[in-house]
Structures are given as structure tokens and as C-alpha cells.
Amino acid sequence: MQHFTAHLHEEAGTLALGAALARAVQPGLTIYLHGDLGAGKTALTRAMLHAMGHDGHVKSPTYTLAEPYAIDIDGQNVNVIHFDLYRMASAEEFLDAGFREYFNHQTICIVEWPEKADAVLPPPDINISLTVVGEGRDVELQASSDQGVECLNRLKFAPNL
């Protein structure tokens, strides 16, 4: 599957999608999150991290730009890096911080506001777009690599219809 869309009627739907994605991701995956402020990008990431086994607080890395998490996936220690590039002044800031080294076959990178560093970011495996619609969200997942297609094929999610 290369493309998936759904309407999430309430926050519980966003949390359920995050949990479903957590069961489908593998090391080396890069996910871009698109959407306006308040669209649910951080909520989706938080749900993914908790479903992956992170017990602690998951904050938006708005001021730090990146928050690392050590997660166990099938007995393998995997680093998940949550980026929030909203406050980045330029794409060069991303390079100067040394963030590009995190994008490798062992790390899962989740990037909010990727358009702030388009020129220097590696391409995503999956683009996720969230749009506020009434009380809910429309979500679109688009795979753009073989690894992204594999992830979406593993995704088992039935939206709250």
C-alpha cells in the first residue's frame, strides 16, 4: 500500500493511529509530519512513542529542536528522534546542529515541520498530513520509498467510522 486516508472523529482516533503506526515501524524509517499548529502532529508522535514502550513524558521539542528516545523493538534497542523544526530560522541550522547524522538505518526519525529544512533533509519514507476538520482530523499517509510501502503494508488500523 502506498497511500492511506482516514477521518479521525476524535483524539482517540489519533492515539489509535499512533499505536497502530508504532506496531508497523522499523529502524531506519523517516516520517515527515505535516499540518497546521494544533493539527495533532505531536499527539500522534506521543501516541507512537508510548505504544513503542516509552513510559515517560513526551514533550514537543519546539525549543530543543530534537528529543531522543531509546525504544526496544523486538529485543533491539532503537533510537527514535522526534524533531520539531518549527522555530528553526534556516535549513543550515539543522546541519550546524549535526542532526543529519541521526538519519541512518538504525534510527527512526519523526520530523514535524520538515518544510523548514527541505533543502537539507533526507527524503521521507512516509509523509503524514493531518488536517483539522470540525472536531476531528483528516489524515493522509503517503509512502515514498520501499521501506515506507512495507510499513504501510504492516499497518493494521481501522478508523473510528
Which tags fit this structure?
4 helices, 25% helix, 7 strands, globular, 161 residues, seven-stranded mixed sheet, alpha/beta, Rossmann fold
CA-CA gap between termini? 20 Å
Along the chain, the helix and strand elements come as: EHEHEEHEEEH
Radius of gyration: 15 Å
Tell me the β content.
Answer: 25-35%
How would a crystallographer describe the biggest sheet? 7 strands, mixed
What is the topology, as strand order, of the major beta sheet? 1-7-6-2-5-4-3
| Total count of strands | 7
Class computed from helices, strands and strand pairing: alpha/beta
Low-pLDDT runs = none
Helix coverage percent of residues?
10-25%
Q: Using the 3D structure, state the CATH architecture of the domain at 28-118.
A: 3-Layer(aba) Sandwich
At the third CATH level, what is the topology name of the domain at 28-118? Rossmann fold
Mean pLDDT: 90
Number of helices: 4
Full CATH superfamily name of the domain at 28-118? P-loop containing nucleotide triphosphate hydrolases
Tell me, what's the shape?
globular
CATH top level label of the domain at 28-118 = Alpha Beta
Main location: cytoplasm
Keywords: ATP-binding, Cytoplasm, Magnesium, Metal-binding, Nucleotide-binding, tRNA processing
GO cellular component, one term: cytoplasm
Family: Belongs to the TsaE family.
